[in-house]
Amino acid sequence: MPYVLIQTDVKLDPVHQKQALNKISQRVAKTLGKPAKYMMCALAPLEAISFGETEGKSAFVEVMAIGLPREKIQELATGICELVAESFCLEPSRVYVVFRDVLATHWAWNGKTFG
Question: What is the main EC category here (predicted)?
């Protein structure tokens, strides 16, 4: 059930998009000890983004999960930043990552909440 949303202005062809999403999805699933088949990872291409008064080549990543363990957040931050920077040819200093721990009562799948 973890979800990762990557927003970036870096354009990738469909093959590289799929590879990037797959790598990031696998890393998050492994770090959280969740089955990869329940991971959702999305890419939201942006026309423009600014970062520190400069434009271009940056990314904003959101990671959401039920019961996101605090002790895993630094490991996730490092791994996600590395993979996003590598996959999208970005400097790691141009990547923000935000983590959200979602209540089970606020997350649904197949028409039912998890809590």
Answer: isomerase
In angstroms, the CA 108 to CA 33 distance is 20
Residue 17, amino acid: Q
The DSSP 8-state label assigned to residue 11 in this structure reads: -
Q: What is the total residue count of the chain?
A: 115
Cβ-contact 5, 83 below 8 angstroms: no
- Residue among 75, 74, 42, 33 nearest 61 (CA): 42
- Per-residue model confidence as pLDDT tens digits over 12-68: 999 999 999 999 999 999 999 999 898 999 999 888 888 888 777 999 999 999 999
Q: Which domains does the chain have, with CATH numbers?
A: 3-113 (3.30.429.10)
**Residue 84: half-sphere exposure toward Cβ, Cα within 13 Å:** 31
Q: Give the residues across from 64 on adjacent strands.
A: 3, 100
The pair of three-digit structure tokens given for residue 5, joined into one six-digit string: 């949303």
